[in-house]
Write a structure and sequence with these properties.
single chain; 382 residues; alpha+beta; four-stranded antiparallel sheet; 56% helix; elongated
Length: 382
């Protein structure tokens, strides 16, 4: 009987040329690829990756992001494997490494990859008479960059901090005089000529509201991709889109960009508020100023309510580190009602966030409906 060979002395099978090449490869991301921070989406934590040329955005998990963020052209699989094992407690195998490289190569995210074909420019106009949008500026990024250069001195903290303090003082003061403001609004709506002038000012402030988002984005390194008009008959307003909004580093920067429009709306009301405060109670202009302050405050502050698609909703998402907060909340509630096991995949933090937002959403809708009905009743009966 022939003895079995000694397994301890059997030489290992030689590695395939493909595996050897993969282990020796030192991949690097192409310049300009943007990597986003961790974001909660449903039960998963995701990172966004943006192509620098096409602008296409992809989602990856924490493990893939850990590796992608370290692809600087100096590390091989053998260099990254110990770091990966230390962070995740498991060995990085060749197959996942090859799949990751294949994905990055297919997406054109590795250095040396050919540029994708230029994307077709979006149509200058979409929609029809009743609702739609129209692009108004050929190069929105260059336009807002020029505005930012001109207005940059006004963004200095030496000016902005006193303005912010003035807004924070004015808002509760106006709330204290809410009854007088509502009475003034009732008189204002009975004067068509004055009401038209106020409506024109408020429309103008909406336009500046949108530009404020773009200028704030430029201040923090953002890229404005479109400035145009959006209409839903009979309302027409400007809109400003920031393309790399979610990739701007820092939560504070995102909060400032999202809140810049509402802040500017309140700053524009400061001269009228001072005028109103200084007028004697018998002055005939005082009720009209009160109406302007009431309508302007509602317009500005309502944007901070955390309901989609308002700016406050985006601010809450940034503060919580989430994406698609409202849709993911609906999905989670549907899973809870169905009693399925899928909801068990949600981590505790996700469950707390989606339950709290669902309760807050319902409360805010009730408060908004009740407040609107109350104000309408007061305006019609006074």
């Amino acid at each position: 009987m022939t003895p079995a060979p000694d397994r301890a002395t059997t030489p290992p099978a030689p590695a395939s040329p493909r595996a050897h090449t993969a282990r020796a490869y030192r991949p690097a991301l192409r310049p300009g690829v943007l990597l986003g921070p961790p974001l909660l989406r449903g039960p998963r934590t995701v990172h966004l990756i943006r192509h620098p040329v096409s602008g296409a955005t992809f989602e990856v998990g924490p493990k893939e992001h850990f590796l992608i963020s370290r692809l600087d052209g100096t590390r091989t699989l053998d260099d990254l494997a110990p770091l990966y094992a230390e962070h995740f407690g498991r060995r990085l195998a060749e197959d996942p490494w090859m799949r990751l490289l294949g994905l990055l190569g297919t997406r054109g995210l590795l250095e040396g990859a050919p540029d994708p074909p230029p994307a077709a420019p979006p149509p200058a106009r979409t929609g029809g008479f009743w609702h739609g949008s129209r692009r108004m500026v050929a190069d929105a990024d260059r336009t807002t960059a020029r505005l930012h250069r001109v207005l940059r001195p006004l963004l200095h903290p030496a000016l902005q901090l006193p303005l912010l303090a003035a807004v924070l003082i004015t808002v509760p003061t106006l709330a204290w005089h809410a009854g007088e403001l509502v009475d003034g609004t009732g008189q204002l709506i009975r004067e068509p000529a004055v009401l038209a002038a106020v409506a024109l000012f408020l429309w103008f402030s909406i336009t500046l509201h949108e530009l404020a988002h773009g200028i704030a984005a430029q201040h923090y390194g953002g890229q404005v991709t479109e400035i145009g008009l959006r209409w839903r008959f009979p309302a027409v307003m400007l809109h400003c889109t920031v393309g790399n909004y979610l990739f701007i580093p820092g939560v504070r920067a995102k909060l400032v960009i999202a809140g810049a429009g509402a802040y500017l709306n309140m700053v524009l009301l400061l001269p009228f508020a001072l005028w109103w405060f200084l007028l004697p109670g018998t002055d005939t202009a005082r009720p009209y100023l009160a109406g302007l302050l009431f309508l302007g405050s509602v317009q500005g502050l309502s944007n901070l309510v955390p309901l989609p698609p308002l700016d406050g909703y985006r601010m809450l998402g940034h503060a919580l580190g989430t994406v698609r907060l409202a849709p993911e909340t609906r999905t989670y509630l549907a899973l809870r009602r169905s009693g399925g096991e899928a909801r068990a995949a949600y981590p505790r933090r996700a469950r707390h966030i989606y339950r709290a937002y669902a309760a807050g959403f319902a409360l805010l809708v009730l408060l908004a409906a009740g407040g609107t009905c109350t104000v309408a009743y007061l305006l019609l009966t006074r």
